Amino acid sequence: MSSNSKPRILTGDTPTGRLHLGHFVGSVENRLALQDSYECFFIIANKHAFTTRAEKPDDIRQSVIDIATDYLACGIDPNKSSMFIQSEVPAIDELTFFFAMLLPFNRVMKNPTLKDEIRDKGLGDNHSFGFPMYAVGQTADILAFRPQLVPVGEDQLPHLEMTREVARKFDQVYCGVDPQTEDRDYVKAGGLFPVIEPKLGRVKRLVGLGAPGADGNLLKMSKSLNNAIFLSDDADVVQKKVMGMYTDPKRIRVTDPGETAPEKNPLWAFHETFNPDKAWVEETRAAYAGGKIGDVAVKRKLIEVLNAVIDPIRTRRKHFEQRPDDVIDALRIGTRKANEVAEETLALAKKAMKQDYFPRKLSM
Ligand code: ATP
Ligand code: MG
User: Fold this and answer.
1) What are 247-293's pLDDT values in tens digits?
2) How far away, in angstroms, is 101 Cα from ligand 2 center?
3) Which of 118, 254, 342, 359 is 20 to 30 A off residue 5, Cα-Cα?
4) Does residue 110 sit in the same domain as residue 68?
5) What are the CA-CA distances from residue 268 to residues 2, 249, 258 (Å)?
């Protein structure tokens, strides 16, 4: 049994690049705020990276290290939180296969995030069989830890809904939980898996630097879409990216503050998210809408604002870049802890499914 009595958090990232500002406001800020009050597990989902870059194992390996380094640079403390490598936790795969039987095929294929990714990442009809499998696997990434809370950005909500469906189904079929049970009472009613709750960040979906996509909306900032400012970008890279950022020629700003989803002008989405001087933002935005101030002045200010956010992260990152053994150690310790919990969950799941033939022990 895990000795820690705190409620658990599970969340994580795909190693398809480094962490960017979208991760920071969408998920990392919450992780930092909650790492004292929850037992936290942060998965680096390297198998999921193979869904789109199976031919680039070197890149994936480098990204695993990069993401772990980013975690430490952001202030995730390996003495409090466990960061771990997905492929080193075999119980997740074993649960994936069982969970795949609880999800109708068409249900998975209708997952709107999968559809968006197929469109936005240009995967077309040529995506692998494994691509939709990752969404099923993600239900196991999460439930292997039986967490209460899953801090994520908005794009993950369809995956979390599928995770909730798997938890309910498993608990009903194998643990005898009454389907009328309230979601929050599934474990109390004898279920193994909690019907997990998503926790959205301060910004649910930070937009990227580029022009709107095929559907007319700005794309989300994403490692794979070449539209991100990374937490490891140097000051001159930040400057270049901001100066080259798309701005709406008609200067339209559509949404209310704090709601960046259908925002047509990333410049203001970024100021609203990161500029602490709210009065400046409001005044300057009005002047900008009236044509009294141009893109360049607003971009210059934004460069200052973003560097103030990124500077301390950048400094800590340099520290860890020079200590690669510390990064590996954090991953090793975290992965060991992750295996303890995931093995325990798998054993309980097999018992509930009456497939507990021989006990086993995993060592690392
Ligand atoms: P990829 O392009 O490979 O899909 P990504 O940039 O979407 O990468 P993920 O690793 O898929 O990053 O997502 C990790 C976490 O960060 C998820 O919880 C996701 O919701 C959140 N996240 C990613 N991008 C954003 C964003 N632009 N705004 C808010 N949250 C985000
Ligand atoms: Mg993604």
Assistant:
1) 876 665 544 444 433 346 889 889 999 999 999 999 998 888 788 88
2) 24
3) 359
4) yes
5) 46, 13, 10
Q: What whole-number distance in Å separates Cα of residue 269 and Cα of residue 227?
A: 14
Q: 67 with 88, same domain? A: yes
- The reply to whether ligand 1 has any atom less than 6 angstroms from the CB of 224 is yes
- The CATH number given to whatever domain includes residue 14 is 3.40.50.620
Ligand whose nearest atom lies closest to the CA of 228? 1
Residue 358 lies in a domain: no
Same domain, 66 and 38: yes
Spatial separation of the C-alpha atoms in residues 102 and 136, rounded to whole Å: 10
* 16 Cβ closer than 6 Å to some ligand 1 atom: yes
pLDDT above 70 covers a percentage of the chain that reads 95
**Using CA atoms, how far apart are residues 195 and 184, in angstroms rounded to an integer?**
7
Q: Tens digits of per-residue pLDDT, 63-102? A: 999 999 999 999 999 999 999 999 999 999 999 999 999 9
Q: What's this model's pTM, rounded to 2 decimal places? A: 0.92
Ligand 1 pocket test, pick from 150, 222, 227, 229 with the greatest ligand atom count within 8 Å of Cβ, gives: 222
Please state, in angstroms and rounded to a whole number, the distance separating the CA atoms of residues 40 and 334: 10
For residue 291, what are the domain limits? Answer: 235-319
